[in-house]
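Researcher: Re-running this chain for the archive, since the previous output was lost when a drive failed. Same request as before.
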Amino acid sequence: MARSSSNTMLWLLLAVFASLAAAGAGRGDDGRRSSPQVYVVYMGAVPPRTSPDLLLESHLRLLGTVLKRGRRADSVVVHQYKHGFSGFAARLSKDEAAALRRKPGVVSVFADPVYQLHTTRSWDFLQQTTTTAAVKTDDSAGPARRRSSNKNKGSSKPAAPADDPSSSTPATDTIIGLLDSGIWPESPSFNDAGFGPVPSRWKGVCMTGDDFNSSNCNNKLIGARYYDLRSVRGPSPSDGGSPRDDVGHGTHTSSTAAGNAVTGASYYGLAPGTAKGGSAGSRVSMYRVCAESGCAGSAILAGFDDAIADGVDVVSVSLGASPFFRPDFSADPIAIGAFHAVAKGVMVVCSAGNSGPDAATVVNEAPWILTVAATTIDRDFESNVVLGGNNSAVKGVAINFSNLDRSPKYPLITGAAAKSGSVSDTDSASHCEPGTLDSSKIRGKIVLCHHSQSDTSKLEKADELQSDGAAGCILVNDAERSVATAYLDFPVTEVTSAAASAIHKYIASASQPVATITPAATVTEYKPAPVVAYFSSRGPSSQTGNILKPDIAAPGVNILASWIPPSSLPPGQKQASQFNLVSGTSMACPHVAGAAATVKAWNPTWSPAKIRSAIMTTATTLNNERAPMTTDSGSAATPYDLGAGQVHPTGALDPGLVYDAGEDDYLRFLCNYGYNASTVRLIAGSTLPGGFSCAANASKHLISDLNYPSIAVSGLLGKATRTVTVTRAVTNVGAQEAPTYTVAVSAPAGLDVKVTPSKLEFTRSVKKLAFQVTFSRSRNDDGDDDAAAKGALSGSITWSDGKHLVRSPFVVTS
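Model: Regenerated structure tokens:
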């Protein structure tokens, strides 16, 4: 099979097919609509002094005005939203949906979208890295990556209580809600030993469903709900509802965010140590909105609506839309639900997406969301290639339980040399694309295959090679090197192009080349780490170019956390592992949700914006070599890759200063984004004065003035604008009542950055102070614009009182 020439085109085609499939849902073979489709009707904030029962009645009355004769409103409703916001989801015809769009009080009507899931040592690594690196902020490039051998050490080290915020949380009453694929309650991560009674403010429930009842909840797992997922699972009777996880994703994310410390955890001996969540003292509530095939937008909104009413403190959302077909804010279930959650004081943390390393692929971009990118940790899984002749070893990475002889005795062949006679494309054969190899040439041999992101998946290649009788496979793979893929019972390892050159040289020089592949071994204290994972979606935001996204980075590569019981065991294993190693921004998101819950526990009155600020401004941009972080390709990491940097959970407990923002700020953002005043009034409801109006000069450029912990400015490097000034305000939350902060600026060539005033002097009565940042294009000696001032220029401003470093990254573009 010929390989696609563009990874972006591949993802685009997949997204088109998914969109066409969704659009075709409910149509017969002749293309005519055979049944109504689910639409979401969003009506903004709940009207004041309106009971849920009255709100539900009003929804049904409104719906009844557009339904065709013979259709009852209560028979077509799928969900009704009545706590955090107003609206409903119903099975409607296209004409009925169009009629509802024209009704007063309706913000938007949109077809129910299907979103996708963004599919330990990580917490110890965060403490080790940030403790040594947080005091230095340097935007220069770092060295190439290398490893230190440490095969015999365990995968986790005990941290002192003072360095581990999860072990010193002042209360166990913080509640993390997860919108995900469900939960496996029997996991030891959710044992409630040592937990007191459920907080009295909790209003949630433990729903009974298939193989799930109220006894599955306890004082740790305090809530579990599930929703109608027929739009993503189909109407099969076997697809009954339950909060129980049959995918594994929700169990993994919830244990990463708030799982108990479980000693002796590993994945069949790999990554051994103690698995624990970021806020082990927090309670957990699961809102099952996803099946393996996807997540229904109408269910996502129902999950947000219930989580707000139940009383969660933090919502963790490891899923999102396609970066190629993302909806606008008023038609995005995550943006809608998150807006109303934040307006009610609930922190919302979302994954950035797994469509990297292409630019402008970040999703969940609304400024009221904390958006998380993924990075590696200092652990690797080494599976080496041993070559015949002198038994030299070539370093490889994969998760396999190879049963090959440790001596190199298996014939070694390249995919190109094993090309089928019926195939003319040698390049596809060299990549071992399915159908391109002669099975008689590879039987009993180890096959060397090249791989790129636009190829058929690695697992598909491995499956075909295994079924054709190959002894093993060596994949030459540069882009995906940082993620150890699990091949389990088939001996596969992955090597870089540089390492593969030694293998090619050996094959060319030996008359009968032979090799073997060793089983995976855990290597810790890998350097440099963290690096930004290749799959992590990148900025700039295509929706909000004057908001810098993603916001923060966290571990998301080969994360060990709880899992559902597997359907089969790897070779030689007699007992199922309760844990799994999984990668994705899905895994990074709950790391930050756990950190946010800990900050909330220490500061119960803080707004979501203050918590976000504490997390962002205390992040580190250094790796475990005390050098600036890079991407996994070795290039210098920019704010478009990792936002403010790698999360520093302990540092976030004492940020010194915070940037606050509230619902009014986000409503002004919506005005500047382009929504008219009547729509904004509907979204906000009674929180706005009756005469509210968007400013006459509302503009997307004014979005840069949102009191955000990072700064993004567009239009400066073009010909029209030479200077842009933005305003920020910070609040002193440190122990010292009257500190003085001075500013340090790190600016790239071609850009002049001035902060006014350069010193902030707080007093007992003055806790909040404003400052301005002016960005100007540099001029060279001839008075012309500096040629270096092109593209995206990034740097940072850092306020310090001698103890705290309050760092804000910035990006300036044309």
